[in-house]
Amino acid sequence: MSEMKNIPQHIAIIMDGNGRWARLRGKERSEGHFAGMEALQKTVYNAADIGVKWLTVYAFSTENWGRPQAEVDGLMELVCTGVEMHTPELKKQGVSVKIIGDKSRFSQKVSDALARIEGHTAGGERMTLVLALNYSSRSEIQTAMQELARRAKAGEIEPEEIDEKMISSSLYTAEMPDPDLIIRTSGEYRLSNFLMWQASYAEFYFTDVLWPDFNREELEKAIEAFSARDRRYGLVK
Ligand code: IPE
Ligand code: IPE
Ligand code: MG
Fold first, then answer.
1. In the structure, which protein residues have their CB atom closer than 6 angstroms to any atom of ligand 2?
2. Phi, psi (degrees; rounded to nearest 5) at 24
3. Less CB within 10 Å around the terminal CB: N or C of the chain?
4. In the prediction, which pLDDT does 2 show?
5. Alpha-carbon span 161 to 164, nearest angstrom
6. 10-136+178-227, CATH topology level
7. Radius of gyration from C-alpha coordinates of the chain
């Protein structure tokens, strides 16, 4: 705990390895996803307890629709049960939930669940939990570019006015600070289409731990590693 001198304001996590966790135990992939949700629940309260203000988690990518239908259906069902199970406690703990991603592709049932968790937890000030669902960084940027082009065509803005700030505020993450620390579990070393614009000066932390096994100790290790980093932002100290 003593090594966590510098607590990142915003941590983003690529929660990977549920399937391998299940396979190692002779279980179905769906059981890995359920265990992954439990790891997420613990991580949310651990992060809030440590003093993290924003926690963004990659829960379902745009590419994940291409998985077997039964797995996709199971994940969507898990979103609905997750909302039912966890909304009251999140509200009680002062955690507000925000969704980033293209919400238009979800079934009515999933859309309703997402609206419910956002609505019921709104105003929670201890920490914001951002769920990236049907999220892809490239499609996020594409949507933002289309919106800016529309506004330019309508004469609301001049193309020369488009600066980094305007682009940032056209993304799903408009009101959020950029992530300070990005964690990926399961020994994979890639972004998989996650927060590419926002990650410009993020610190990265990779661990072989599979997501369902991620716990307070692992979170503290990641924050300790972050604390020891020297963020230069291209400058000379
Ligand atoms: C991450 O675990 C969860 C989602 C992508 C929904 P995976 O399901 O990708 O697990 P592995 O990578 O197959 O082990
Ligand atoms: C990234 O994990 C997406 C989520 C964690 C939701 P994947 O398992 O889908 O990514 P790849 O296929 O290994 O790049
Ligand atoms: Mg994976």
1. 14-16, 58-61, 64, 188, 190, 192
2. -60, -25
3. C
4. 57
5. 10
6. Undecaprenyl pyrophosphate synthetase (3.40.1180)
7. 18
